[in-house]
From TrEMBL:
Transmembrane segments: none annotated. The lineage of its organism: Eukaryota, Viridiplantae, Streptophyta, Embryophyta, Tracheophyta. NCBIfam families: HAD-SF-IA-v3, Pyr-5-nucltdase. Gene3D superfamilies: 1.10.150.450, HAD superfamily/HAD-like (3.40.50.1000). InterPro entries: HAD-like_sf (IPR036412), HAD-SF_hydro_IA (IPR006439), HAD_sf (IPR023214), Pyr-5-nucltdase (IPR010237). This is Pyridoxal phosphatase. It comes from the Eukaryota. Pfam families: Hydrolase.
Length: 280
C-alpha cells in the first residue's frame, strides 16, 4: 500500500479537469463563411417575420448583438414576441452546412486528451448537433450546454426567471445607460456562465474555456475560468492564451499533453526514487 501511494504521488495531476468549447467560429474558422450566412438569415428574419424596416436592419442587428450577445436576445429585450423554435429554424435551419468539412486533425487532437470536454454555445441544440456532425466531432464531447439548456420554455414564460441585465453606452454622451432586460440567458453575461457551471458541474478554476468572442472571454475570466481566445494571434485583457486556429492548441498548450504522457508513461522506481518515461 505504501508503494502504491508513493507511485501515485509521482504522477503529475493535470491542471485542468474540463475543457469548455464554444462552437461557431471556434471549432471551425470564420473563413468558412457560415457565420456570414447566419447574419444574412437573421436580417432576413427581422424584415420578413418582424416587419422591421429593411434599411434599419443592418445597424440594428449589429447593435443588438453588441449589447445583448445575440441579436435574438436583443430583439426580445425590445419587446418583439416570436417563437424561438421558428427563429432558430429560419436562422440556422437554412444554413449551407456543406461549407463545413470533416476535421480529422481536430478530432485526433481532442481524442488524444483524456480530459472532460463540454460544449457551451448560445446556438440551439439542432445547430450544434449539425455542426459537430459535419466536422466529424460528434463523439468528442461529454456534454452540451446550448440555448435550450439555458432557456427552457418554462423559464422563458416565467416573469420571475433570471434575466440578462445589460449596461450599454449612449452614442452621444458615451455615458453608461441601463438597457432593457432580455428574458434570454446567453453569453457573454455572467448568469449564463454560472448556470452552465451548475448544469454541467464545472469547477471554473480547473476549466479551460475556448471562444472566439473577446466579450465572452473577458466575462469567463471574471468567473474564474482559464481562457483561450480562438481566431486571434495576440492576447488581450482577460486572455490567457490566443490561438489563430483551434488546430494550434497543442503548440500553445503543450502542458495538456505533457501531463497525459507522464501519467501514461511514468514509471516509479522505489529503489532510486525517480520517474522515467516510456514513449509509445
Amino acid at each position: 500500500m505504501e508503494f502504491k501511494n508513493e507511485y501515485q504521488q509521482q504522477i503529475p495531476q493535470s491542471k485542468y479537469e474540463c475543457l469548455l468549447f464554444d462552437v461557431d467560429d471556434t471549432l471551425y474558422p470564420l473563413s468558412s463563411g457560415l457565420s456570414a450566412e447566419c447574419t444574412k438569415n437573421i436580417r432576413e428574419y427581422m424584415v420578413k417575420k418582424l416587419d422591421i424596416e429593411e434599411t434599419k436592419v443592418p445597424e440594428m442587428c449589429a447593435q443588438l448583438y453588441k449589447d445583448y450577445g445575440t441579436t435574438m436576445a436583443g430583439l426580445r429585450a425590445l419587446g418583439y414576441d416570436f417563437d424561438h423554435d421558428d427563429y432558430h429554424s429560419f436562422v440556422h435551419g437554412r444554413l449551407p452546412y456543406e461549407y463545413l468539412k470533416p476535421d480529422p486533425v481536430l478530432k485526433a487532437l481532442l481524442h488524444s486528451l483524456p480530459i472532460r470536454k463540454v460544449i457551451f454555445s448560445n446556438a440551439n441544440e439542432a445547430h450544434v448537433a449539425e455542426v459537430l456532425h459535419r466536422l466529424g466531432l460528434e463523439d468528442c464531447f461529454d456534454d452540451v450546454i446550448c440555448f435550450e439548456s439555458l432557456n427552457p420554455k418554462t423559464q422563458i414564460t416565467n416573469s420571475k426567471s433570471p434575466k440578462s441585465s445589460v449596461t450599454g453606452y449612449d452614442d452621444v454622451s458615451k455615458h453608461a445607460v441601463v438597457l432593457p432586460e432580455s428574458p434570454i440567458i446567453c453569453k457573454p453575461f455572467e448568469n449564463a456562465f454560472q448556470q452552465a457551471f451548475k448544469m454541467a458541474k464545472i469547477a471554473p478554476l480547473k476549466t479551460l474555456f475556448f471562444d472566439d468572442s473577446i466579450r465572452n472571454i473577458q466575462t469567463a475570466k471574471l468567473t474564474g475560468l482559464n481562457t483561450v481566445l480562438v481566431g486571434f494571434s495576440q492576447k488581450k485583457k482577460g486572455v490567457d492564451y490566443a490561438l489563430e486556429s483551434i488546430h494550434n492548441i497543442k503548440e500553445a498548450l503543450p502542458e495538456l499533453w505533457e501531463s497525459v504522457k507522464k501519467s501514461k508513461g511514468g514509471r516509479y522506481s522505489r529503489k532510486i526514487g525517480i520517474e522515467t518515461h516510456v514513449k509509445a
